[in-house]
Structure formats: C-alpha cells, structure tokens
C-alpha cells in the first residue's frame, strides 16, 4: 500500500447519513407521473429524518440531474424548499458522471471552508422524457424538436454515432469475446440478487411513498422494478445489436434519487450514528479518449488515478463502476489487469438501471456501506460521461485513528 496518499484534509462523508430510492425501470412506477425535483426534495427530507439528521443543520445544497423537469430553472433553492428548508445551492450536470461530480463539488465546498454541512441530492426521471423545441439556426429547419433522452442516446452531435455504437467499436478494438460479455452479465445479475436476498440493499435503499397533487398515495416505490433474473441460456439466445452488445448486456433507463451529506470532520462525528467511522475523499481524475470510445474512457481514468495516487488495484477494498454495457467491464479488466469478478459485488447499474443523475451516487453509497462491512479500506468508483469521457475517484473508509473499522 502507498505510504502517503494525499487526500482531502477537511471534507468527510458522515457514515449512515445517506439513502437512495429504488430505481424502477422506465414507466413502471408512480415516479413516471411526478415532478421529480419535488419528489426528490421530499424524499431527501424523509431520508434525513430516518437517519436522525436535523434538517436545520443543512447550510447548502448541491443537486444533480440531466433531464429537464418543470421549474428546473430554479434548481437547488426550489428543491430545498420542497425539503422544507430555505438554503442556497446550485445544480451540477455531467451526463452519467453527475452523481459523482455532485459529491466532489460538495467536498470542495467543505474543503474551502465555504460551508460546514452540504447536502448532495441527485435525481432523474427518464420516463416520459420531455420534448423541447429549440431554434436551430445552423440547420435548414427553423426549429428542431429534441426528445431529451432517446434522441441524445441515439445521436452524438460530435461524432454522429449512438451510444450503443461506442460499445461495439470498443469491443472490436479490444477484441472482446461475446462469451465473456455474457459471462460478465450473468455474474452481475447473480451479484445483485445475492445482495438483495442477504438484506444488504435494505441498508441503503429506502421505500418511498408517492403522492399525487391531492396528497393521496399513488403507491410506494419499494423495488427496482423491471429487474428480472436471467440465465446463461437467455443471454446466449439474444441477437447482437452491435459487436458483443445485446439487449441483456446493456443497462436500461430508469427513475430515481439518491442523497448523502458532506461535512467537516468535526460535524461528521456529530451527525453520524457511528462517529468512529471516518470517510474521506482522496482523489479524482477525468480523461477524454478518442471519439466514440466511451467504454475505454473509465478504465483510462482509473489508470491515471492509480498513477497519481500511487495506489494499486490490490489496495482497493471495494471496486464499483457505472457500466452501461458489460463490455465496459471486459475492457476495464484488460486495461487495468483486474479480475472483473471482484468488483460490483453488491450490484451495479448494468442491472438496476440508469436514471443518470443519481446512478453514481447510489453506487458510491453502496460501495461505502460495503467497505464498512469489510472493516474499511479504499473504495474505487468510476464510470463514463457521455460519448468519450471517463471519471474515477477514490474514497478511504477507516476508523478515526486511521485503522480498521470494527
């Protein structure tokens, strides 16, 4: 292990002051009918109440989302009002990396001394994605209707290629075998259901009631709706949509929210139900690779992060990523030399879906919770951001003296 890894000196994530909704798949739950910003604010209020955190302690709010929602212009101050607090804040957006960037932005607020308690709230609703009409003066059309999610996934204006094409291109470049991709996919589903059946997911996921405009219940979101068990035979029978890419080996659009707190080290000890646990952001990197080579970008970001920190993959207690395609994990294994079976052991977005904004926030919460159960250590989190960007970050979980968590 590296002898001296520089890390944030002041910013901490108080253990246990976090929570995530379940992520129901596109149009499968009452979340398809709500204002997601309002729902997310109300949901964070409930989660903080369940965690025993007084909302009056919040000083600032960082929210992250990628899909337009009604009243989005008002961003964090409006969402804070939905929580029942009047605090300032702002909005972060970086495609699939949004959930991690929001946490790191909050950590910078703490590190710089601007605030002592920052709430991080990420959310998105892909269901019934709104359609905007935009002036397009460079086109023969006077206006162009753009469906935010589906049209953007299907067309990168910088390259003209769809997201699924980036996976196929990368699979060909790295000579990925279809059998390995199916094996990875099956492994990820098995990991998810093992974590679910063991009760691990109950420690981070919170059932949330959805109310209509009249305040009447529309139901409770209490499952990752749309996730079904798959078999090796099921996966083998699926036709390729591009090289090594099938309907089974890619993620799906979903809805959801996730939240946590970032505070000073002193306040973390006050707010956490287990004040002896110390969770520290260590470092982050980003890379931009060749056009339409998204699946290799996260692996390159991790390689850069390891070089910068002096850490190795053997130093990592927990490894989790956002993997919109199983191909991402196969390429990561080749680039970094890591066994993909030893990562995502409590589930991942390949299985439970991709609402974009909260995807990496939920992954981080699961990763930190897993590290605590293992006695601490470094948590590596990484993923992609749109066409060819990768992001990676390391967090350290230890006791207050830098030792193992008991």
Show the helix and strand layout.
Layout: E1 11-12, E2 19-20, H1 36-50, E3 60-64, H2 75-83, E4 89-92, H3 98-111, E5 117-125, E6 131-135, E7 143-147, H4 150-154, H5 163-173, H6 178-198, E8 208-211, E9 217-221, H7 232-237, E10 255-264, H8 265-271, E11 277-288, H9 297-309, E12 316-321, H10 326-336, H11 349-352, H12 359-373, E13 377-385, E14 389-399
Parallel strand pairs: 3-4, 3-5, 12-13
Antiparallel strand pairs: 1-10, 2-10, 5-10, 6-7, 8-9, 11-14, 13-14
Can you walk through the features of this model?
- The chain has 406 residues and is an alpha+beta fold.
- It folds into two domains: 11-127 and 204-233 and 250-271, Thiolase/Chalcone synthase (Peroxisomal Thiolase, Chain A, domain 1), CATH 3.40.47.10; 163-201 and 281-399, Peroxisomal Thiolase, Chain A, domain 1 (3-Layer(aba) Sandwich), CATH 3.40.47.10.
- Helix content is 32%, strand content 22%.
- The chain is built from twelve helices and 14 strands.
- The strands form four sheets. Strands 1, 2, 3, 4, 5 and 10 form a six-stranded mixed beta sheet that branches. A four-stranded mixed beta sheet has the order 11-14-13-12, sandwiched between helices.
- α2 links the parallel β3 and β4 (89-92).
- α1 crosses α2.
- The chain is globular, with a radius of gyration of 20 Å.
- The protein starts with 10 loop residues before the first strand and ends in a 7-residue tail after the last strand.
- The relative contact order is 0.21.
- The mean pLDDT is 93.
- What is the mean pLDDT? 93
- Proper CATH architecture of the largest domain: 3-Layer(aba) Sandwich
Report the top-level CATH class of the largest domain.
Answer: Alpha Beta
Task: Summarize the main sheet.
Answer: 6 strands, mixed
Rg, nearest Å: 20 Å
At the fold tier of CATH, the topology name of the largest domain is Peroxisomal Thiolase, Chain A, domain 1
Beta-strand level of the residues, as a percent range? 15-25%
How many H/I helices? Answer: 12
Q: State the CATH superfamily name of the largest domain.
A: Thiolase/Chalcone synthase
Low-confidence stretches: none
Quick one: overall form?
Answer: globular
How many separate domains make up the residues? Answer: 2
Class inferred from helices and paired strands: alpha+beta
The percent range for helix content is 25-40%
Distance between the termini: 20 Å
């Amino acid at each position: 292990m590296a002898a001296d890894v520089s890390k944030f000196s002041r910013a901490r994530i108080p253990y246990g002051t976090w929570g995530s909704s379940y992520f129901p798949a596109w149009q499968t739950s009452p979340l398809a009918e709500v204002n997601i910003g309002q729902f997310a604010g109300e949901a964070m209020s409930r989660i903080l109440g369940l965690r025993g955190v007084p909302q009056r302690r919040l000083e600032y709010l960082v929210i992250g989302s990628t899909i337009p929602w009604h009243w989005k212009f008002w961003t964090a101050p409006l969402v804070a009002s939905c929580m029942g607090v009047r605090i300032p804040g702002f909005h972060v957006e970086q495609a699939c990396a949004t959930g991690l960037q929001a946490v790191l932005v909050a950590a910078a607020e703490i590190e710089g001394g601007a605030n002592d308690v920052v709430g991080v709230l990420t959310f998105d609703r892909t269901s019934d994605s709104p359609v905007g009409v935009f002036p397009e003066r460079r086109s023969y059309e006077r206006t162009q209707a753009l469906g935010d999610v589906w049209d953007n996934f299907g067309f990168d204006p910088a390259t003209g290629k769809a997201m699924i094409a980036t996976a196929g291109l990368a699979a060909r470049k790295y000579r990925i075998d279809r059998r390995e991709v199916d094996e990875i996919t099956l492994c990820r589903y098995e990991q998810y259901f093992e974590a679910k059946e063991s009760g691990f997911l109950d420690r981070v996921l919170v059932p949330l009631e959805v109310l209509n405009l009249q305040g009447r219940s529309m139901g409770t979101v209490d499952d990752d709706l749309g996730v079904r068990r798959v078999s090796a035979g099921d996966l083998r029978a699926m036709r390729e949509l591009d090289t090594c890419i099938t309907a089974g080996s890619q993620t799906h659009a979903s809805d959801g929210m996730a939240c946590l707190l970032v505070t000073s080290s002193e306040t973390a000890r006050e707010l956490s139900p287990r004040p002896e646990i110390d969770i520290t952001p260590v470092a982050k990197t980003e890379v931009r690779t060749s056009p339409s080579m998204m699946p290799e970008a996260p692996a390159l970001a991790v390689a850069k992060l390891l070089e910068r920190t002096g850490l190795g993959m053997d130093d990592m207690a927990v490894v989790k990523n956002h993997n919109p395609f199983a191909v991402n994990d196969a390429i990561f294994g080749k680039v970094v030399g890591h066994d993909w079976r030893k990562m995502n052991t409590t589930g991942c977005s390949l299985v439970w879906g991709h609402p974009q904004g909260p995807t990496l926030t939920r992954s981080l919460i699961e990763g930190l919770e897993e590290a605590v159960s293992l006695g601490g250590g470094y948590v590596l989190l990484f993923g992609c951001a749109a066409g060819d960007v990768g992001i990676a970050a390391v967090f350290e979980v230890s006791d207050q003296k830098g030792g193992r968590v008991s």
